[in-house]
Amino acid sequence: MAGTVVIEFPSDYKFLNIVDLVCGEIVEGLCCGRDETNEIAISVIEACTNAIEHGNRQCPEENVRIVFRCEPGRLIVEVEDRGKGFDFKSYLEHIPDPSNLQHLRGRGIYIMKNMMDALRFEVMPGNGMKVTLEKNLPETAADAGSGVA
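The structure assignment produced for this chain is given below.
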């Protein structure tokens, strides 16, 4: 798969099944193994869940936007919401250990950080937050994604 796929949906958890299906279809064409496929899907769903819950405060009038970009050697997924954002720099320095059951929050960012090869947060101009997830792809996937035989 080469190119870009963009989906946008209202901030409602019921649309996460569609996100999972679209993600699965995109990743299936990238020659990823089962582990990589699961890591990508779990991370994308977690980023979308955070966008719905924390970014858009479950307001169905606010959309979540996802951009899947396949580039040579990597998959980039951007998840955007319209929320106020949060102090991600401080948060990334002090990610709670998810094995500590006392922490009710923070496991999602821990999961994304450990399952993906890169995780970035960006406060959007005006209003909104963008989470960028990157996964390095096997050579065969990079060749397939760039159209190289």
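Interim note for the steering committee: Strands lie at 3-10, 63-71, 74-81, 118-123, 129-136. The radius of gyration is 15 Å.
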